[in-house]
Amino acid sequence: MIFKVERLGKIMKSDKIKRGLERMPHRALLCATGISREDLSKPFIAVATSRSDIIPGHIGMERLERFIERGICAGGGVPFFFGVPGICDGIAMGHGGMRYSLPSRELIADAVESVVKAHCFDGLVCLTNCDKITPGMLMAISRLNIPAIVVTAGPMLSGRYKGRRLSLVADTFEAIGRFKKGELTQKDLQELEMRACPGAGSCQGLYTANTMSCLTEAMGLSLPGCATALAVSAEKDRIAQASGERLVNLVRRNILPRTFMTHKSFENAIRVDMALGGSTNTVLHLAAIAKETEIDLPLELFDKLSKATPHITSILPGGKYFMEDLDAAGGIPAVMKRLANILNDMPTVSGKTVSQIAREAEIYDEDVIRPLKHPYHKEGGIAILKGNLAPDGAVVKQTAVSDKMLKFKGRAAVFNSEEEAMKAIMAGEIKKGSVVVIRYEGPQGGPGMREMLSPTAAIVGMGLSEDVALITDGRFSGGTQGPCIGHCSPEAAVGGPMAILKDGDEIAVDIPNRKLEVKLTALEIKSRLAKWKRPEPKVKEGYLARYAKFATSASKGAVLKI
Length: 562
What we know:
- This protein is of the alpha/beta class.
- It is built from 20 helices and 14 strands.
- It has helices at residues 15-18, 24-32, 61-75, 89-92, 101-119, 133-144, 168-180, 186-195, 208-218, 234-253, 263-276, 281-292, 299-307, 323-328, 331-338, 354-360, 418-426, 453-461, 522-531, 542-550; strands spanning 44-49, 78-83, 123-128, 148-152, 159-161, 164-166, 382-387, 390-397, 407-415, 434-438, 469-472, 484-489, 506-510, 515-518.
- It has an 8-stranded mixed β-sheet.
- Helix 6 links the parallel strand 3 and strand 4.
């Protein structure tokens, strides 16, 4: 019969669109894509690709798509590629475009869900790399719970200028402050612009993109070595091809993502994050992914594991090494080898367990990945602070803070937007002993919870990182260093304590004791809150207006309420 589809094995999800007489129109449309009748009996594999001409971390993905395609075909599947949106945080930084960055995570998750569900795919490969794209895809993977694997496109090589290695944050964002101080010439600036980012790949340090790639591998959702294999390397091509082939194997055996995405694997991801000293944004993203997986991941867990996990690498922005150094030292498998005794032994998409990967790993540089008994810091990268300024919590990358600034008292300099703060910083109005407060930049107030890399980098570049702290209900880039405290919850826009701060209020930061306090009595705080009025929304139409209406607190991952 003409409608019969020859097939082997178990019933596949894609049978809904290709089996039976009533699916003749569907098969006709599928044949229009160029597939053969024989292909109709094979697993249909979706490849969600975030290839883009404007995101450096994604411009090399066309080559990786070819290798993923080879792998899927070699495994006996049929690949179907579709695109998802992506935003370059670096290009969106410091202006209104950054409002779209975090909300794009939800768009990406919804887009992947929509395409995969509508077309009844049997499996999913996610080709991703940068800041919100990777967590958005991981949220979709958990939500869909069909066999899936992640290919992250890899870090960028360091730049070179005057015999020195360069990175995006230190040699562009922070260079602005150094130029203002007279330490760099106009020619230096022009050369740094051209040389800091020499080609394809995610930015060269443990900023959000690379941190999320590392945690994806630690959770067992990427093949070993994927996170750190450089974007321009043949090794990355081989990993892409192996990932495509492996995914078809997972489909045939119906091994689902939630096999790997358990509470114990989230703990592993947090442990690796703390050992690396990764981006504070991972707190938001892991919480959001966990919610999709129906797992509770409270802020307190991050702090608990941080206190029990030594910081064993020294990678940009707070350290001296680059992602290329971490890769050469053995990558995430080598980090897992160091942490083997405190990681949960879980399965991974590779077919190997965490303990097997750790046992087989080699550590090629004892300083890039230090032993647990000789760490860079006794505690992990992130600390969760609480107090009357952040009753629901705030986040700081403590390993990027100097010993001098772990405890700090200063007078508030209050700003209602990033632009106001940046103007004052560049005008030299921020004095030593200040605590810069940037409020109304949270999930609802921003809206979109912008990153504050421009002001923090300017403070560092102007030599004030040892004398000025910064707190916000917005976020910080993974590239931030110094005493910069973000995610203050509840945010100012919903009447959080930051809303009632005034210039000159004394603020105390105590990272070792996890405290963030304004020196006001409870009665004074209550009196000020009684007089406070919520400001008009900054955005009143379009996607951001809808996002602001449904966004939850940063302490809950800034996900959307259903």
